[in-house]
Known about the structure:
Number of strands: 13
Distance between the termini: 40 Å
Strand content: 15-25%
CATH class of the largest domain: Alpha Beta
Shape: globular
Helix content: 25-40%
Number of domains: 2
CATH architecture of the largest domain: 3-Layer(aba) Sandwich
Low-confidence stretches: none
CATH topology of the largest domain: Rossmann fold
Strand order of the largest sheet: 3-2-1-4-5-6-11
Number of helices: 10
Mean pLDDT: 97
CATH superfamily of the largest domain: NAD(P)-binding Rossmann-like Domain
Bound molecules: nicotinamide-adenine-dinucleotide
Order of helices and strands: EHEEHEHHEHEEHEEEHEEHEHH
Radius of gyration: 19 Å
Amino acid sequence: MTIGVLVVGGAGYIGSHVVHDLVAAGHRVTVFDDLSTGARDNVPDGARLVRGDMRRAEDLDAVLAEQPEVVFHFAARKAAGESMQVPHDYAAHNIAGTLNLLECMHRAGVTRFVFSSSAAVYGSPAYLPIDESHPTNPENYYGYTKLAIEQNLAWFARLSGLSYASLRYFNATGYDLAGRVTVRECGAANLCPVVMEVASGLRESLDVFGGDYDTRDGTCVRDYVHVNDLAAAHVAAMERLLDGDSCLVLNLGSESGSTVLEMIAAASRVIGREIPYRVVERRAGDPASLVASSAKAREILGFSPRHGDLDVIFESMRGVYGL
Ligand SMILES: NC(=O)c1ccc[n+]([C@@H]2O[C@H](COP(=O)([O-])OP(=O)(O)OC[C@H]3O[C@@H](n4cnc5c(N)ncnc54)[C@H](O)[C@@H]3O)[C@@H](O)[C@H]2O)c1
């Protein structure tokens, strides 16, 4: 069945991968994006790009008047560290912008919503792997903005008939294995893109924050999930909503953890040369290990990450970084 979908923030890193899959599945896709961190070239020929700001109702009303069956929402500020410096900016985009989008959807009678949440809603783990029942206690303002929206979604589902899937990503990584996405992530602060930027000479140095954690090599353990696996989960979440599900809150992670040094070693192996780094002081608020349980997504979405192998992840990034 072909449906109309609206992808807010669809010109960005994760959104563009989802847009490619939606177009490939034959859907009518409108990307709504202000191109602040996204790129026109990320939008495939089969989708339409409408430039606008989700904080402005008049920008959104026109695209919502087309009555998309499902709205995907990727647009956000996403750097945890930065969110502690400029919380008002994060409030304006991630909270006020999203509430504006939800209000415009409500006015237009559009009821299905797939939201990009984050493992940052959990804060320091009380136990591992982290499942969806784990307490939510964000340690940075970014994580709080995601939790605030999740709480509003639960209310709107009860009070105004919204159906939603909130997908809590762990560390999204890699690039499209079919090579359809060719634009580098803008202003990336995550480990994998930073490693590749150093390898390709776009960045001078690679700092490893803390070498004395209680982990197998002293560096932090994180759960890296390939962006193609994430994209497949979004399409599955959309299908669940179309089938009548609502209020889905699901982790999306690979369920395995890799240390920072293992990631750097994998990148070096794939590229065929050493990537220099230096171990510096720990950063505040970085837990030793974060690993997801994705059992719920496996059960509800049939989520089964297929591209978690570290060599596959870095291999998929080479082209985009000219390596
Ligand atoms: N990258 C990760 O590892 C990760 C992990 C957890 C959650 N997330 C969440 O996933 C979502 C997508 O992340 P990404 O890595 O693709 O980020 P991104 O910055 O590449 O994409 C965000 C897109 O939203 C657009 N945008 C931003 N503000 C807008 C506005 N006011 N109006 C319209 N468009 C706007 C940007 O131009 C960009 O195209 C975000 O909500 C992020 O918080 C990402």
